[in-house]
Task: structure prediction
Amino acid sequence: MNVLVVEDDATIAEPLASGLRRRGYDVVVVATGHAALAADGYDLVLLDLGLPDIDGYDVCRQLRERSEVPIIVVTARGDEADRVIGLELGADDYIVKPFGFRELVARIRAVTRRVQPRVENGQRRVGPLTLDPRTRRVHLDGREIELTPKEFDLLAALMEEPGVVVSRRRLAEQVWESTWYTHSRTVDVHVGALRRKLGDAAWVETVRGIGFRLGRSA
Ligand code: CA
Result:
């Protein structure tokens, strides 16, 4: 998932960007409202309201006029009127500086969940790929894909949060109910099999040293 961080204070923007990258997000940082409005190809905006060129509220309103992209307003202005105006202008949520990183990630997840419902009629859907936890069936472009039980569980874990990195450890715990020390190689083998069955390795991206995520082609 691509996050556009609009923040003119580098002492805030840089740790924010590197923290998000560690969590598996792709991050682009811009420092002005004009740059924010010129940016393209992102899935979520973290928008500081105090920008040097255009008022953050105007940026928010203009972004919302042109797309439904989730916007989280980041503000040092703590008073309630500012928050209300931000939400009225189309922001999906707001967070007040200083904020904890965990809180931010939780907000990002909540907002992306709200804006992009992943579950339709009980099925998880990512682009042409659907997974039904009740029948344990997977379809790609309408064609059923035969998966082993572990491959199914692996795909289900990756489809919980498309685009977000799932660590090897979490996959091992969730799918094999074991620790990754024993089963690291097992995870790789199953990821390989899953890629072959989905017909495109890009469906499951390797994030070096961390784990895997459902690919952007998703
Ligand atoms: Ca600022």
